[in-house]
Amino acid sequence: MRSSTSFTPSSPKNNKPPVADAGPEKELTLPVDRTTLDGGRSSDDQQIASYRWQQTKCTSELDQPPVARVVSPPPVTLPVRTGSLDGSRSSDDKGVIYLWTRDDSSPAAGEVLNNSDRQALLFLGNLVAGKYGFTLTVTDGKGQSSTARGTLEVKAGEPPSHAGLHFTTRRAA
């Protein structure tokens, strides 16, 4: 006489799917570039067998604020009365709007040429001796901005040299 027994595993009758809980949503603002997620509040009516994490939003989709950069030139010596400041190394992932503003400590002389105070390169004319300070503000399409400061120094020219010239003086009779 033979007897056979078979066994078929079965699931618990009221098994419910697990509930994943990674904690509250987090938004990072630079310079913070990392965080910790905690799945400890996840639950199951039986037992959680394993965890698997998957990134759902790519970091390249985040809008980064712009970065303002100003390159100051070497000093200008009179009689040269023009100069420039360069903000073209400023950057943003979407593009920027430029705005140059004169610092209060700058000489009142000099003028912005060709409406360049709204361009990457600021051109100045009619300069006199002194240090001209300007602040560049770059703003992106979402209103995020950054500032940087640049200086243009204008030096007085050397007096003319009289080397090699001979002067003769006469006394009046």
Automatic annotation (TrEMBL):
Q: Which UniProt keywords apply?
A: Glycoprotein, Membrane, Transmembrane, Transmembrane helix
Is-annotated flag, keyword Membrane?
yes
Task: Please provide, in alphabetical order, the Gene Ontology terms of the cellular component aspect for this entry.
Answer: cytoplasmic vesicle; Golgi apparatus; membrane
SUPFAM superfamilies documented for this protein: PKD domain
Mention any Pfam family matching this sequence. Answer: K319L-like_PKD
Protein's UniProt name = Dyslexia-associated protein KIAA0319-like protein
GO biological-process terms attached to the record: neuron migration
Family annotation (PANTHER family): DYSLEXIA-ASSOCIATED PROTEIN KIAA0319-LIKE PROTEIN, FI19480P1
Q: Which residue ranges have biased composition labelled Polar residues?
A: 1-14, 45-62
